[in-house]
């Protein structure tokens, strides 16, 4: 792998902005970062001058189902290579492959396939986003708040079935979304937390008290807040009230302007603060593709004007890319550095990998996105490999 010294107008690091920055990339990692004037060009290294660009970490999407016309539930290397190559073009350099509720055997087969891909994903020098693990969105969800998840495949929370999913994942299980009001949810949450998983409250009709009970058992994340949740009212704050007022719970937000109204986004951002929100795409196979017919798990989804809906007319994921999410929240008035943090350092911290992902720092993977003044992507590196 070549050694590259990248010269940018400004680099965003955990310690702040570095104007006139240099980033030395070697063997897929950031070897050093600082003022370009303080860095020497190693023998044989190439220098890339991009003084008109802002360097930020690659985006981390902890909730995404597919891209480029393919779905992660296909569970084969060809589909997953297509998904990860397409996402890298939009600055997403790491992700959690997110399942959708399906037949139990089909789910386990998909999870086994994803895990097999994860084990071999770095054997190619082609640029692609890295799959960090698996997010199980289902089957332990509320029938009332299931969204497009097929009702016939929902299951009551079961530590035994969770163990089956864990076994199929071969150590790659990262997040479990669960409705905490369901019978058996608390033992399931306990089992997931004992295995080191992040437990996320989602697709739920939980009351405030039921949501707080889940937090007491270790749940500390919330899946696409507002969507597929019991509504907030002044006499029944419900799960949304618990999320908004519990500092240790991080909140996913789909900032596409379709899933959540701008005012509701502002309420969430003001209540949770910069450290408490993680921007996600909830993207499906239509991400990066034209309007048409696509799949989400085994379901057919129609995309019109970039909006995804099931045959019943329900919202079914999105076509949002995280570079667009960045621009959307900045347009809302969120400071640029805060918006970047919600796409990079916050998801990395949730997964406990903040020293390898989500930040431009020495020793971190060279996942780097260059932005122009309009916050549009001009170049991406995924583990030191140029995407375009």
Task: Write a concise synopsis of the structure shown.
Helix content is 27%, strand content 29%.
| Overall tally of structural domains | 2
Q: Spatial order of the strands in the main sheet?
A: 5-8-9-10-11-12-13-14
Note the gap between the termini: 17 Å
Q: From N to C, what is the helix and strand string?
A: EEEEEEEHEHEHEHEHEHEHEEEEHHHEEE
- CATH architecture descriptor of the largest domain: Alpha-Beta Barrel
**Biggest sheet details:** 8 strands, parallel
Which CATH top level class of the largest domain fits? Answer: Alpha Beta
Please explain how this structure is put together.
By secondary structure, the chain is an alpha/beta fold. The protein has ten helices and 20 strands. The strands form four sheets. It has an eight-stranded parallel β-sheet, sandwiched between helices. A seven-stranded mixed β-sheet has the order 3-2-1-4-18-19-20, with no helix packed on it. Strand 13, helix 7 and strand 14 (277-280) form a beta-alpha-beta unit. The longest helix has 17 residues, at 104-120. The mean pLDDT is 96.
